[in-house]
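Section: protein folds

Sequence with per-residue tokens
===
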Amino acid sequence: MKKKLSRAAALVFATALSGAAFAATPASPDSAADGIAQYREMLSDGGNPAELIEMTGEDLWAEKRGPKNVSLEQCDLGAGPGVIKNVYAHLPRYFEDTGRVMDLESRLVYCMVNLQGMDEKEVTKKPFSGRGEYSTDMESLVGYVVGQSRGAPIAVPQDHPQEKAAFERGKQIFFFRGGPYDFSCASCHSAKGQRIRLQDLPNLTAQEPARQAYSSWPAYRVSQGALRSMQWRLNDCFRQQRMPNLKYGSQASVDLTVFLAVNANGGKMAAPGLKR
């Protein structure tokens, strides 16, 4: 515990210094993207604040909780009970015990409900932290599990018929246009060289940009001071399209993740990443 606290103190100090240096750097429209990249680089050497959240997740994973007073150490994320090394690089995938394709977050909910006896509505009531709040239990667990796949090749399976079906449904969702602006995911993420304000928009239908984008999520968002999961990322895209909220852990959310993940196959996980 002392080692963790010392590590946390060092990260906070490094983050504060890097943030101050970034804020002091003059910005111009031409250099804004480079400035963001520079800030990420300054924090990349063991200074991503997500590491603090990973520590919390590590404790939560081993803590006995819920009505059944058990830990998540027997949770099967696809590689056997308790195995978390490199598992995120192979998710979403089909699970025999549920008969459906699941992503990390829906699988964690399943384990918290079935292993620990927690109430699903309570577990999913507030999966995302608000601005200025510390990470939720789900965000912390996601950060911990995802961090165990750093450097692992992304290899999301397409072997089971349901995995293939999930990909096709996810593709349809990606290209579906709707809402007051008649937007789709593809409106922003299916062409090269697009951007919104100063933010580059990767083409998620092309292999290399899909790999670079997907491999860095979940990520710590500096502007919000929070670790944001893939479910949050998708829901925020729906919000910007002025579409109805994407239900947390829904099959639609999982299917869309399958489409994005399969497009990124062959890349190497670098999450939790660091975003502006």
About this structure: The two ends are 30 Å apart (CA to CA). Residues 1-47 form one domain. DSSP finds eleven helices and seven strands in the chain. Residues 1-10, 12-29 have pLDDT under 50 and may be disordered.
